[in-house]
Amino acid sequence: MNNLISRLLSVGALSGALLLGASAQDVSQEYDLDAVEVLGIRPGQLTPVTKQTIKLPELKLHTTAWDVPTLLRGTPSLLITQDAGTMGGYTGFSIRGVDPSRVNITVNGVPVNDSESQAVFWANMPDFGSRLSDIVIVRGAGSSTFGAGAFGATMDMRIAIPEAEAGGSVSTYWGSYGMRRDMVHLTTGALAGNWRFGGFLSRTSGNGYRDRSGNKGFAYLLQAYKGGENYSLQLIHNLGDQHTQVAWTGANQSMIDSYGRRYNPDGLMNKGEKELSKQLFYPDQTDNYRQSHTYAILKHQPTDNFSYDVTLHYTRGKGFTREYKNERKLREYFVVPMSNKTKADLVREKYLDNHFAGGIFNAMWTGEKGRINFGLSGNHYWGDHYGILPWVDGIAKGTMTEFGPFYPNSEYYRNSSAVTGIATYLKGEWNITDHLLAYGDVMYRYSRTTMHGLSDKKSDKTGKMDVLNFDGANAPTYHFVLPKVGLNFHPSRNHSYYISYTTAAKEPNRKMFTESREYDDKGNEILPRPEYMGDLEIGTEQTWGPVSLFVNGYFMHYKDQIVPNGKLSDVGELLMVNVPKSYRAGVEMGFDWQIIKQLRLSANATLSRNRILDYTYSESVYDASWEWARLKDYKMDETPIANSPSVIANHALTWMPLDNLYIDFSGTYVGARYVDNSGYEGHRLPGYYTGSLMAKYGIDLKSHRSLDLSLQLLNLFSSSYSTYGYIYDAYSLLDKTGKEVSRGQDLRQFPAAPIHFVAGATYTF
How far is residue 77 from each of residues 94, 454, 462, 539, measured CA to CA in Å? Predict the structure, then answer.
């Protein structure tokens, strides 16, 4: 009730400020944030890195999407994943085959990647794309920025400042599989004292294509902005509240053949029942999380050649998953002694309760020949992980166990963790001649992680529940010094050539310490190692009248690269391992052609080779009667890296046959890729093409009002494909003599929806 009241008060205050703005805007002087922009967190126009600036108004001509991964479809080297088969819920993306935990993502320069998993969970940020003015993506290691180490790319999203004129918009979108989005945007315009206030309120929902994969999201953003002649102050508070049905378990081919492509096995209560009509599913198999972000950003330009910004930020997150689990070993839940092998069905809830706070300082000095940027960042994350058991089959309230009486909703594990990060950079650009720019950059990063308490995972080594003891001298601590250099030759404003060599490094994430543990031949644990990368980029950007193109070649070579091992954690996250030697090499190319005023064609493609060298792959080995299992190692000189297709291509044709009518035909081709690092054909997802047709019509109304109507057909040709997959189990089968007679696998995948639509309308006033 208190949350509902606070939301209503927020909307009421915003509406009241809108009315004040209508009378006050004529007495205020307008100032724009860009007048005091500090370029420390974003590369400049001639910085020799592979970059792309995406303006949100232009992007929305191609899509009706409201979640950020789907919104970015068509971006070079980008691959989208969806566990529900449609937009919304747990969607994600990788760039250059690099998983999302190793793509640095920031909002107005503030890190968004979770400090423990190092990923961004877009479900926790419903409808975030509607709040943005632009997105800058720098592929590869790129220019230094704060937050998680960047291997695939860095991506900075900028929240749009409130408009100088009072107004707003109301949007509603409806689509297949229950997709719905309702959004209200209001701004006061310029008030006395050069203040502006604005905000967004959104509700999103969908049933998902796959069974029981629906999602509900509520979000709001409140913003106050004050602009002066040489400064700006921006206060932002953004909250996302999501409830998503669990669809983390993929379906194997046998399930798809028997029950159809929409089948989701999560929450099955009567395990073993083969008849679909008789299968019972737990009705509250859900993930629930609320996360808020609060920023205070001051930008100041005291002189013509010096500017700086100061940012304070705080993120608060709390949530839980509720799942029905079949035949679980009760000793792992401390209901029976560790020696007991009793199993039972149960309902468990796993909680996260965390905080993330810090500060950022950037400064820029500009001279006749170049500029120098300096930055300093410090942040601290702290949080708890714990679980409770609301119900255990056959265990009544008060039942005595070795550990005392059992009570529903009692905790069965709890551990705490903290991550401290400090980073600083110094970078500069110098015009050697009028047509040659040199770039230099060095960053220092420090990271220290502590974890202590009882884990929810049983140790493969001891047979008991793991106790985390990464504290004091055992706390993983890392120091990284990361240099970057480059040159840009630009004989004219329409032609440039660049070369750069940049470095990146990253510490292991939490799951590598808790769920991807490795041991040597003597049984000693091999601790996860940080990864290092050197990235060579050579490219050009050319413009000839209505035609522009880019070509970029890259070679990313690694030491101890962190890659997916083809398995998922029990909450749907990729499990990662180190591989000593590996590389990614490729060519990215694209063009944009304004054929005539009413017709525009663009396309891009990435051709790549992604390989691990000297790799050992292990899988289970069974005898002919399936009575025993051991691990068998397959040693390979070279093998493809998981989730890394060698071809990704996109196209878009936009036609404006009438004023205010846009028709866009776009499509994406993704080549075949392996879901693990085995290179085994049975672990391979086939390539696919998916097309989209978008129509948007704008109607100009009186008094600066307008109505925009949109209709999009997605997966236009009903391609049958899966966005990603994993291996639940892989094995070899031996005959009585010990000879391998077959190899098998339980390949799980996440099928995407066939042709479906989204239609909507936006009224702007």
Answer: 8, 41, 43, 15
Give the type of residue at 148.
A
Smallest CA-to-CA distance from 180 within 144, 206, 155 is with 206
Does residue 381 sit in helix, strand or coil?
A: strand
* Spatial separation of the C-alpha atoms in residues 170 and 181, rounded to whole Å: 11
CA angle 566, 617, 508 (to 5 degrees): 55
Tokens representing residue 52 in the block: 């792309």
Q: Which two tokens stand for residue 121?
A: 């969970």
**How many domains is the chain built from?**
1
DSSP 271-306: TT---GGG--B-TT-EEEEEEEEEEEEEEEEEETTE
SS (H, E, C) 530-588: CEEEEEEEEEEEEEECCEEEEEEEEEEEEEEEEEEEEEECCCCCEEEEEEEEEEEEEEE
Structure confidence by residue, pLDDT tens digits, 501-517: 999 999 999 988 888 76
Tell me which residue of 351, 328, 207 sits closest to 269, measured CA to CA. 328
Summarize pLDDT for 151-194 with one digit per residue, the tens.
889 999 999 999 999 999 999 999 999 999 999 999 999 998 89
DSSP-H helix ranges across 424-552 = 510-514
Residue with tokens 């902005």: 225
Task: Collect all residues with Cβ–Cβ distance below 8 Å to 567 and sequence separation of at least 6.
Answer: 575, 676, 726, 727, 728
What burial class does residue 731 get, using C-beta atoms within 10 Å of its C-beta: 0-12 exposed, 13-18 middle, 19+ buried?
Answer: middle
CB atoms within 10 A of CB 45: 12
CA 502/CA 556 separation, integer angstroms: 9
Strand, helix or coil for residue 442: strand
Is residue 496 classed exposed, middle or buried when 0-12, 13-18 and 19+ CB atoms within 10 A define those classes? buried
- Assign residue 311 the CATH number of its domain: 2.40.170.20
How many helices (H) and strands (E) the chain has is answered by 5, 39
Which are the contacts of 60, defined by CB distance < 8 A and separation ≥ 6? none
Hey, what are 760's tokens?
């909507």
**Smallest Cα–Cα separation from 131: which of 212, 71, 216, 61?**
71
C-alpha 714/C-alpha 193 separation (Å) is 47
Task: Give the whole-angstrom CA distance, residue 662 versus residue 710.
Answer: 9
CA nearest to 116, candidates 479, 452, 381: 381
- Do the Cβ atoms of 508 and 552 come closer than 8 Å? no
Tokens 């070369």 sit at which residue? 499
CB of 662 within 8 A of CB of 654?
A: yes
* CA neighbor of 666 nearest in space, from 60, 126, 92, 50: 60
CA dist., res. 206 & res. 87, Å (int)? 9
Residues of the chain whose pLDDT is less than 70? 1-40, 401-403, 460-463, 517-523, 624-629
Query: For the chain, what is the largest distance between any 2 Cα atoms, rounded to a whole number of angstroms?
Result: 92
Q: Whole-angstrom distance between the N-terminal and C-terminal Cα of the chain?
A: 32
Measure the CA–CA gap between 744 and 213, rounded to whole angstroms: 28
CA dist 153 and 480 (Å) reads: 18
Q: What is the pLDDT of residue 45?
A: 85
Structural domain that includes position 651: 2-764
Tell me which residue has tokens 């110094």. 426
Taking the C-alpha atoms of residue 73 and residue 712, their distance in angstroms, rounded to an integer, is 14
Q: Does residue 131 sit in helix, strand or coil?
A: helix
Query: Which of 510, 520, 661, 577 shows the shortest CA–CA distance to 117?
Result: 510
With CA atoms as reference, report the closest residue to 163 among 138, 200, 126. Answer: 200
What tens digit of pLDDT does each residue of 223-269 get?
999 998 899 999 999 999 999 999 999 999 999 999 999 999 999 99
Residue 693: partners with Cβ closer than 8 Å, 6 or more residues away: 663, 664, 665, 712, 713, 716
Backbone φ and ψ for 5, nearest 5 degrees, come out as -60, -45
Strands 599-622 and 547-568: unpaired
Distance CA 458, CA 511 (A): 14
